[in-house]
Amino acid sequence: MTLDAHQIPADDEHPRERQRGPVTLRRGQSDEATTTDQRLLDSRGPSAWVHTDPWRVLRIQAEFVEGFGALAEVPRAVTVFGSARTLRDHPEYKLGRDIGAALANAGFAAITGGGPGAMEAVNRGCSEAGGQSIGLGIELPFEQGLNPWVDLGVNFRYFFARKTMFIKYSQAFICLPGGFGTLDELFEALTLVQTKKVTKFPVVLFGTEYWGGLYQWLQDSVMKHGKIGEKDLALLHVTDDIDDAIRVVEEAYQAWSDTH
Fold first, then answer.
1. Each residue of 214-260: pLDDT tens digit?
2. pTM to 2 decimals?
3. What are 1-12's pLDDT values in tens digits?
4. Most confident stretch, 46-55, 140-149, 228-237
C-alpha cells in the first residue's frame, strides 16, 4: 500500500521525533542530548561508561541479528544514497523518484538511509512502482524518523552495523548528489571493492555536473600521483542517464550471479 501526496502529513504536523535504535521517541522524550554512537566513541566523560562496554557489545550484536533477520529475504537490491536536504520541488527529488521506479521495474529492491530528501524520493518512486522500498535509519540528533514511503524499515544505533547492511544486501550503489554522508558511503564502498572485500559491485555517480569535478580530481591528482591506478578509477561510472545506470547495475548483477 502506498500513500498519496494528500495523505502525507505536512512538515508542521510531524511531532518532534528521534530514533534510538528500534525505539521511536517523540515530543518530550526526544530531548536526549547525545546519541548511542557518540557515547560509544567519545572517550571523554565519566569513567562509569567504561563499565557498560560489555552491555554495548550485546546491543551491537543485537543490531546485527535484527538487521540480518529483517533483510534475509530481500531479493536483489540496489542502495541509493543522496542528500537529506533535497527539497520535494527540486529536480533532484523527481530524479530520485524516477530512479526508484526504474529499479523497481528492473526487479530490484531500493535501499536508502530511510530519511527525507533524496532518500525519500527514491523510496517513494520504488514504492509507487510496486517495488520493495527499504529504509535503514540511524539515530541522529537532527533528523526525523523513517520517511512515509519506506515499506520495510530497520532503525540502527550504530553506523557500522547499518553500513554492513547496505553492503551485504546490495548488488550496487547509486550516488545522487549529496554531502558528507554520501561521500562517506561512496568511498567506503570503493575501498571495499578495491581491496576485494566485495566483488562485482559497481558504484554509479549520477549527475556529471555534480560529480564531474570529483572524478576529474581523482584522475588528475590522485591517480596522477600514483595513489590509485586506472583499474581503481574504473570502479566508478558517471552518468546522467537512468537507463545507463540500470544497465550497469544489471550487467554487474549478472556477472555476480554467474559466479554464485
1. 999 999 999 999 999 999 999 999 999 999 999 999 998 887 777 76
2. 0.79
3. 444 444 444 444
4. 228-237
Ordered structural domains, the chain, with CATH: 66-258 (3.40.50.450)
Among residues 255, 36, 79, which one has the least CA distance to residue 167? 79
pLDDT attached to residue 115: 93
